Each structure stands twice: as C-alpha cells, then as structure tokens.
Amino acid sequence: MRVVSLVPSLTEAVAESAPGVLVGATDWCSHPAGLDVVRVKGTKNPDVERIVALAPDLVIANEEENREPDLTALREAGLDVLVTEVRDVPGAFRELDRVVSACGLRTRPRWLDEAEEAWLDPPRPERRLRAAVPIWRRPWMVVGRDTFAGDVLARLGVDNAYASHAERYPRIPVDELRAAGLDLVVLPDEPYRFTSDDGPEAFPELPFALVGGRHLTWYGPSLVQAPRVLGEALRAAVR
Questions:
Q1: In terms of DSSP bridges, do strands 184-188 and 129-132 run parallel, antiparallel, or are they unpaired?
Q2: Residue 239 predicted with pLDDT over 90
Q3: How far apart, in whole angstroms, are the C-alpha atoms of residue 45 and residue 82?
Q4: How far is 62 from 70, CA to CA, in rounded Å?
Q5: How far apart are the first and last CA of the chain?
Q6: Residue 143: what pLDDT?
Q7: pLDDT at residue 190 in the model
Q8: Residue 201, exposed/middle/buried by CB under 10 A (0-12, 13-18, 19+)?
C-alpha cells in the first residue's frame, strides 16, 4: 500500500497506525518527528505532478484544508482520492476509522480507542465560559460556525461566541471582539502563531489561553492528550 497524505493530522494518524505506507506528505506535515517521505509542497498548493509520479494507491485529503481543483486534477490523473469531512469530535473518530481502514489496517489502532475514551468525560471549568478564538490577525479572523475547533472547546466547557455566525471563519474587527462580552480569548499557535508577545496585548482586559493548534484543530493521535492539555490551559487562564 502506498499513501500520500495532504492533511498534517491525517499524516500523523497514518504514520502512527500503519508505519511504512506513507510515501508522500505536505511540507506542513510536522508529525511524527523525523518522518522520512517525499514532500509534495503545501496543503493549498500540492505538487500534483510529484504526487502522480509517486504512484500512490490512495491520496488522503480534507474538504476544508485542500482545494477542489487540486483534488480533481489528482482524480483525472487516475488516482484514488479519499476526502474527509470533520466538523466535530464524533465526526473525527468516524473519519479516522475510514482513513485507517482505507490504508489497509484490519485492526483498530490502540491510540484511536484511547482517544475516544479520553473524550467520554473531558475536564471542564467550574462554569461554562464564553470565548472568541482568533486564528489570524491583520485582519482579525476567528473561528465561526460549524467547526471542529468550536466543538472541541464546547466539549471542554467553552462556548464559541461566534458559533452562530453565518461564516465559518469570519473577519471580526478587534474593537468588536473586545466589546463582545467575552470571558476568555483562546489563542492557538496555528495557522497564525500567537504567542505571549503577539496577541494577548490586543485584549488587555481579558484572560487569555495560549494553546497548541495541534491539540485544538488536529484530529489524530493528538486527540488522546487534547482534553487534558487544553483543559489545563483553559482552567489556568481563568483562575
């Protein structure tokens, strides 16, 4: 079996579950560390010719992270493309089952069972919190409706203030964010790399939680630790 993954979290999932089947991955596929496969550029601009030359049995993609014209080009080249759609935690587990099965696994990976168990009763703060989740600045953009990250936070006791917005990743002026009656601002390190010196200063009156994007937005082996790691960061921010 030869697989090319165009989704960082799924690259990690396949590498951990079926060592040796991956032959290609994007430049953004940073986990597991030391992954030795052919790099095929980015999620939004994959090198279609290089992927075709690898002659994979399967290309794994995601409807949000990858562009339809690129996936169409891969299909027209005769490749089998599996496209995942993940909008919540249960959906992540369903799609991960589909991915590992498509990669030829006959038994479910142990980490996937551990991840589902970890999300049965995740830690929550003493009271539900209302937060915004910026993902970019200049312009400011936040997590909106129908997103995996929003569902992750909701299961950890944090309600996304923009969960009912018409857009999935709306642009919201920072003055509006400051006036939104938030309890908390959640600042991930991807796609924009918010840090203690870049982001919190825009919300001087609000508690903030700096979190890893891998735990907030990735669906793969990181789901095992995500409830604990995110839960600790959220609780620490509002103590």
A1: parallel
A2: no
A3: 17
A4: 12
A5: 50
A6: 97
A7: 94
A8: exposed
pTM, two decimal places? 0.93
Q: Which tens digits make up the pLDDT trace of 85-120?
A: 999 999 999 999 999 999 999 899 999 999 999 999
Residue 36, Cβ neighbours under 10 Å: how many?
5
Residue 196 one-letter amino acid: S
Indicate if the pLDDT at residue 42 is higher than 90: yes
Contacts with 228 (C-beta within 8 Å, 6 or more apart), sequence order = 118, 123
Cα 31 to Cα 3, 7, 35, 42, 113, distances in angstroms: 16, 11, 7, 15, 20
Per-residue tokens: 122: 């995740």
Q: Which residues pair with 131 in a beta bridge?
A: 160, 184
Residue 187 predicted with pLDDT over 90: yes
Q: Which of 13, 85, 16, 8 has the alpha carbon at shortest distance from 46?
A: 8
pLDDT at 3 over 90: yes
Side by side, the strands of the sheet bearing 81-84 are 38-39, 22-25, 3-5, 58-62, 81-84
As a whole number of angstroms, the distance between CA 151 and CA 144 comes to: 11
